[in-house]
Amino acid sequence: MSHLQVKFHTKQQRYKVGESPFSVLGSVSSSDLNEVIHKLLEEEERLDEDSDKSQVEFDFLVAGELLRSTLLEHIHDKGLSVESVLLVEYFEKENAPELELCLDHKDWMSGVQLDEDFILAGSYDCSVTVWDRKGDELVSSSVGHSEPVKDVAWIKHSKGDEKYFLSGSQDQNIILWKYEPSLLKVKCLFRCKGHSKSVECLSVNRSGTKFVSGSWDCSIKLWTTSPDLEPGTKEVEEVEKLSSRKRQKVEKKGYHRTPKMTLCGHTEAVSGVSWLSEHEICSGSWDHTIRTWDLRTGEELSCLRGSKAITSLDYSNLSRMVATGNVDRHIRLWDPRSEEGAVVKSSLTSHQGWVTSVRWSPLSPHLLVSGSLDNVVKTWDTRSPKTPLYDLTSHTDKVMCVDWSQSETIASGGADNKIFLFSSNSGNIEQKLE
Predict the structure, then answer these.
(1) Are strands 255-257 and 185-192 parallel, antiparallel or unpaired?
(2) What torsion, rounded to 10 degrees, do the Cα atoms 417, 423, 429, 432 define?
(3) Closest Cα partner for 420 from 172, 119, 181?
């Protein structure tokens, strides 16, 4: 059996061992290398069985990819030389997310997003619901929309203890809601009208001042998130023409709001939108393309063409990559600003059905979560494209949406009428790597 020369390295100082080369068998796997690192730690730090470090498992990175086979097979796959000394980076392994909470509803759960205190969800029964993080239903409203809600999003700005959020629906409308936790009430402030077909996706900018929406009408629209009527706008002019009685009726149902801008270019449904910066967004579509847009001019900046319909899209400010879910079961990673080389930088393959939803971790440039029609939620490290970190199999029907807005919690909703919350320790690990 051939031997290989390896040199171990870690950024986590508490697990550091000597960096002198070691000779190991080519047949070693991650579990074997774990034993080697623990033995070296015991020799250098005299760890006893009660030490917290003795229980830690490590992952190993070789040539930019996590080791998921024998070391020799990995070397051959990456086209590396067996004669040179291999640099093997190791770090604390991501623990499996643990089921934290299960919420039951009356119909398919099609949109979910977390904030620090609450869980926001949209459903095929036309409702939007707010739970607290303990799982108690605080308020639910089905009077806003007349058809299934496809996506929901929190708006970051607030007044006092008031909170604001959005819901987009197959009824072509987007509603801007005000939620008052102290009164357990929601109020429809504005009905954002402009789309001519189902609203599929929403995304709010970092400052919470604007949002964009994508629709089956192939367009993207830009809106303000202001909870007040804006002076000098068409909204105010129309309201001022109303009698006091009519004005009260309109206020109760929500004022009408029109978009600030409409972006046209896609030839099929827009299934995902995400902010690249304060003035640029990207969008994914069933027309197989990812397009970037300048919101100052309304111009299309670039168009990346793929080979399959895109069902979901999310951009990471950490990795500066776009992840898309696709109808051929793959997750694809793109550089939205790429002008040369391969359009798709990497593909993550494991799902057995359409990938319906993808979301990046807010704290790691490598981690993301996906949901699929195969009923499974998967967590991924992009450095392991063929093997997910973990399969979360709590759902008994199609997974319709996932969220990773809060670093320590993953959420998913499905056609089994349930929302699940899973605890994640990725934030802790990322902090240890710093």
Answers:
(1) parallel
(2) 140
(3) 119
N-terminal to C-terminal alpha carbon distance within the chain: 38
Strand partners, 162: none
What is the model's pLDDT at position 430?
47
Q: Which residue(s) pair with 151 in the sheet? A: 168
Q: Is the pTM of this model over 0.85?
A: yes
Amino acid at 42: E
CB 146 within 8 A of CB 126: yes
What pLDDT is recorded for position 121?
A: 98
Note whether 167 and 126 are within 8 A (CB): no
Write out residues in the chain with pLDDT < 50, as ranges.
Answer: 46, 50, 427-434
217: left (phi over 0), alpha (psi -120 to 50) or beta: alpha
Residue 230, burial from CB neighbour count under 10 angstroms (0-12, 13-18, 19+): exposed
Phi-psi region of 54 (alpha: psi -120 to 50; beta: other; left: phi over 0): alpha
Between strands 3-9 and 86-92, the pairing is parallel
* SS3 label, residue 431: helix
Residue with tokens 């303000």: 224
3-state DSSP assignment of residue 74: helix
Closest-CA residue to 7 (of 105, 90, 109):
90
Secondary structure (3-state) at 236 = helix
* Short-list 222, 244, 245, 247, CA closest to 235: 247
Computed on alpha carbons and rounded to an integer, the radius of gyration of the chain in Å comes to 24
Measured from the Cβ of residue 409, the count of other Cβ atoms closer than 10 Å reads 19
The burial of 390, by beta-carbon neighbours within 10 Å (0-12 exposed, 13-18 middle, 19 or more buried), is given as: middle
Identify the CA nearest to 121 among candidates 416, 413, 432, 427.
413
User: Is 58 in contact with 29 (CB distance < 8 Å)?
Assistant: no
- CA nearest neighbour of 132 among 175, 97, 184, 169: 184
Between CA 119 and CA 419 the distance in angstroms is: 10
The tokens 């007044």 sit on which residue? 159
The predicted structure's pLDDT at residue 87: 95
Q: Give the SS3 label for residue 31.
A: helix
Instruction: Assign 244 to helix, strand or coil.
Output: helix
